[in-house]
Specification:
Blueprint (H helix, E strand, L loop, with lengths): L3 E5 L3 E9 L2 H12 L6 H13 L10 E9 H7 L6 E4 L36 H26 L10 H4 L8 E9 H11 L6 H14 L4 H12 L6 H13 L1 H10 L11 H12 L1
Antiparallel strand pairs: 1-2, 2-3, 3-5, 4-5
Helix pairs in contact: 1-2, 2-8, 6-7, 9-10
The structure holds flavin-adenine dinucleotide (FAD).
Flavin-adenine dinucleotide binds next to helix 6.
């Protein structure tokens, strides 16, 4: 596979280094449990869509994706929370830390959200925006100067150990890692980190990573988008509300069932999926 690479923000990048396995490998693995059939492309598609729809996810673990990432430390801290990945990170004890630091661009500088304690929302006046930008830049510059002083050079005493010198660096400093994960857990990561509730900067990484993987496993990714990423689940109470409404308005239930045969509008669902929908609304 040819390595794919895309730059993110001013200094970051995502490289898809390797991918082990394909849609076909997922279908083949599943057939061990479902028995052999004919192996046409459409059979693979139906099988994979069935697996993803019914959350039979272990065949998706047969595919693995490996990335080389350059990212700010505060994004790295979010990435390491995804425990099913294997990773190796740049060593600030062994090597001199990167001279690159993340500084948000104008359109990313927003005030604290009043409704979401973990997010940003709204707009700042130009004066405040520039003032915050300047403070971030000045603080980073001071930290860079301090780090350079601490690690020393040939004309000084040899410098403080790198493992201690780095303690003055902010979390905007860039690090690098190799990060490998199976496809099932990669999708889980994408669902959480491409979501609008995730920090904007990790969304930017997750979206690029997802788009790079998509053409390598197109059938499985499409199934993930259809049955997981863009789907919704209902709680017991929400389902009770829905069932109550359907009971009060039985015409709606009938109308949904008739849509299956509609010539005006297509929903791209197999007859099996229509049957499953009917079972759901009849419950
Ligand atoms: C919007 C958002 C906000 C967040 N805010 C915070 C925050 O404020 N503070 C904070 O600490 N974290 C926060 N997180 C991180 C979050 O709590 C999870 O740690 C992170 O999203 C990884 O999810 P995960 O554990 O499901 O994934 P993974 O670690 O990749 O695990 C995948 C799945 O494997 C299973 N698994 C993995 N390891 C174990 C284990 N040891 N035991 C049992 N099952 C396991 C679980 O089923 C898990 O869902 C946030 C995440 C998001 C997306």
């Amino acid at each position: 596979m040819k390595i794919k690479e895309q730059c993110i923000h001013e200094y970051g990048f995502v490289r898809l280094i390797d991918i082990m396995g394909s849609d076909e490998d997922i279908a083949d693995a599943a057939r061990v449990s479902y028995g052999k059939g004919t192996r046409t492309a459409s059979d693979n598609r139906n099988l994979i869509r069935y697996l993803v729809r019914h959350k039979h996810t272990s065949p998706l673990e047969m595919v693995e994706v490996k990335f080389h990432l350059k990212l700010p430390i505060f994004i790295m801290r979010q990435l390491v929370r995804h425990r099913t990945a294997s990773l190796n990170e740049y060593s600030g004890r062994y090597s001199i830390m990167s001279d690159d630091f993340y500084e948000p661009s104008d359109d990313y500088i927003k005030p604290q959200s009043q409704t979401n304690k973990q997010g940003r929302d709204g707009e700042l006046s130009e004066v405040w925006k520039q003032s915050y930008k300047q403070k971030i830049h000045q603080t980073i510059t001071k930290a860079k100067v301090a780090y350079k002083f601490l690690i020393g050079n040939e004309s000084t005493s040899g410098g403080l150990s790198r493992e201690l010198a780095r303690t003055v660096l902010p979390v905007s400093n860039y690090t690098e890692c190799y990060w490998k994960i199976d496809l099932h857990n990669f999708f889980h990561f994408c669902r959480l980190r491409m979501d609008s509730h995730a920090q904007q900067e990790i969304q930017d990484y997750a979206k690029v990573m997802f788009e790079m993987v998509k053409p390598e496993v197109p059938i499985t990714t499409e199934a993930f988008e259809d049955y997981s990423l863009n789907s919704k689940s209902l709680s017991r109470m929400e389902n009770d509300v829905l069932q109550y409404a359907l009971k009060c308005f039985p015409d709606i239930k009938q109308f949904i069932k008739q849509l299956k045969d509609s010539e005006d509008i297509q929903f791209d669902m197999t007859s099996r999926e229509w049957k499953e929908l009917e079972e759901k609304i009849d419950k």
